[in-house]
Known about the structure:
alpha/beta, single chain, 9 helices
Amino acid sequence: MENQRLLGLFAHPDDEILGLGGTLAEYAQHGTRVELVVTTRGEAGEIADPALATPENLASVREQEMLCSARTLGVSHVTFLGYRDSGMDGTEDNKNPLAYINSDSAEVTARLVEIIRRFRPHVILTFEPYGGYGHPDHIAIHHHTLTAVPAAADPSYRPDLGAAWSVPRVFYPIVRVATLLTMKERMAARGLDVSFFESLGQRVGKGWPDDQIHAVRDVGGTVWKKLAAFRCHATQFGPESIFRQLPEAEMAEVLRYEYFAQAMPEPVPQKTFSDLFADLPL
Length: 282
């Protein structure tokens, strides 16, 4: 796997865990070079414990949390693009002129193209069109990724940014509704508060169709690294977090499988696989 390169393009610190953390860790563990791009430092996020951060220093604290997670998962490099977290849809943070959703799309595309051409990834991971649960920054990086990938392959586009590189595959990590329902059922069986899932269900809806999932990966060997990466993001996953309610062994069972939908190129009907790099000439 030494010749394999995987690049994740996401919006905030902690986006790298839920649907893909075990996969990142497993590939890195076996020699794949893994890098991440994070467009913001998550300064509009919540603060689980006031002792950990203030609104004024949350960006720098979350940057360090991201780097902790990267080390835990085996990610070799994290690039922060430095845009401001846009906050949840409909909040005042959306109006900040520095917010990622208000950035110049051509500028973001060019910055991503430079990274793609430098790193020359064989696989890119990013959010699906709805961004998991409708977060505007998640949706923005989805669109910027799908613009940057073909631009990076076009030698006539900004040759000053490096030699053209055609990314063989782009996948969307998918968090299945079934996984969330399993977590809810196990929490309810223990008499725990599951009200959070009601609001989440309204945002997620029916979720990604199962017949449009093209890769299923058993990450039982690295799911513990995934759970440890959650703990790195202490400001976001405090004691009240739904990801901290079940015993770790039970959470490891719930989060053992990770799912991916192939975005580019057009997937072959009925073809499924477990290795995201399967059949790629490296």
